[in-house]
Amino acid sequence: MSNSEAIKKRIAVAGKRTPADTVIKNADILNVFTGEMMDGDIAIVDGYIAGIGSYDGMEEIDASGKTVVPGFIDGHVHIESTMLTPREFSKLSLQHGVTTVITDPHEIANVAGAEGIQFFLNDAEDLPMDIFINLPSSVPATMFENNGATLDAKGLQPFLAHPNVLGLAEVMDFSSVKNGEKQIINKIAMVQANGGVIDGHAAGVDKEDLNVYMAAGIRTDHESVSSQEGKARLDLGMYLMVREGTVAKDLEALLPIITAQNSRRCMFVTDDILLDDLVEQGSIDHIVRLAMEKGLDPAIAIQMASLNAAECFGLRHIGAVASGYQADFLLLDDLQSVSIHQVYKGGKCVVDKGEINKASFSEVRSIQSTMASLPAFHTKKLTENDLELPLKSTDCNIIEIMPNSIVTKHLKESVHVENGLFVASAKTDHLKVAVIERHKGTGNVGIGIVKGFRLQKGAIATSVAHDSHNIVVVGVSDKEMLRAVDEVLKTNGGLVVVDGEEVLASLSLPVGGLMSNTTYEDTYKTLQKMNAATSKLGASESFNLFLTLSFLTLPVIPELKLTDQGLFHFDSFSLIDIEI
User: Are 564 and 472 in contact, with CB atoms under 8 Å apart?
Assistant: First the structure.
């Protein structure tokens, strides 16, 4: 059916000349345009809402006692952080009322370049969820580390023709924008010429410097961690992305500045969320629920979870329960608790009482065939000598983790040295951390000292190491660290917990070293075993060890990080010596 024919058919249903395919009757509808509740039948044809009023349909659904709200939209999420492929991610997210996401696949792009982006686009096809992509702006994130690919404007340009590509994802390298450097300016100009939206990443950027982002056409930011930062973004005309993920939880800090006057410039995002949180707490539904518990008006909360994000990204066909909009909506048993009875996508019920409609995912796909274009690990064989850290002094620069934060502190403390080598100490909580380059076989091993994990024994390692995704390992002994790294390589990527020679738990992530090739249910079960295993090492249980470890390698976040090339200081934006 052509678009003109579809419009004519929709008009015929709206004008009551033709019965609707489906009519939802007797529900209370939350109007996200006015913030008011309204009555009326919802007439649906060919996946779109044709009208709200009094309608007859070939199928009529009695929704008495239910509240209808638009399907939720996550305005910024890294699907790879869930360790699921887009297909498995959609199965779980739909159960939480999320019918659309805007994702930045810069994790898989840093591993596999254009092939990684194409893998995402392919895996997201024909799903009962809209997965839109913003093209990664920073591959690599910095020049102070080795990743798997480089994507310049020319490499990104072919993807702009894809209907599911919306714009340019979080521009992280603020200094390059401020200095007008060619690489990033070319990407921004190319996307703007194509009518795309450009996301910001203004971590630590003050109000005056935010003008640089605005002048460049960057209109969103998800890195506000205080009311002052959030207000600065709204004052200058940016969209404020209110983030509530697994580590970064900014909702409580930002809620006080959200008002009826400025809320239309605000939306909810998860950014990075782990699978166990997605299963146990939820996604955007969890954020909406939490916001209303903390006093946000329900109409504003739902609006931020739907219409605002849709308008921000130019998605004029979604975000509201209204004539002419795609029939993406939720039937809620209770608005205040966001108790989801059913989820509709394109007019079809895809979730009923918490159960996914498996017929919506009827096509059988071989993940092995779609993985074929993704690169394998290229890492030189390591020995314990490769993990040695020679020191002339006991005074060192140390990474101190901040529980439940991706930001670290820069400590200067004395450490234990024997025979000119650093020796980890569980007593002082000075542990060794290493980043092993895995893309090009360089043999690079960056070594540092970290405080805050509180491991009493053993080691943990992961190939999820933002954003270049080399292997990162922390441990009490070099032998155990080496054992953990060997196990990561054996499984072609993954998470590992080691105690002595014993592997206590292992989660294989063979899809680029980032994602599982099994179902979300099986992956979740294994992840629970991983979390239980870390507690056996005497580690802190007040934060997620693996997620914290994976962000120790992200140099574009303050304050002290570690790459395969060494210790990196955010403020000076340079590598520094480990000794003071």
Answer: no
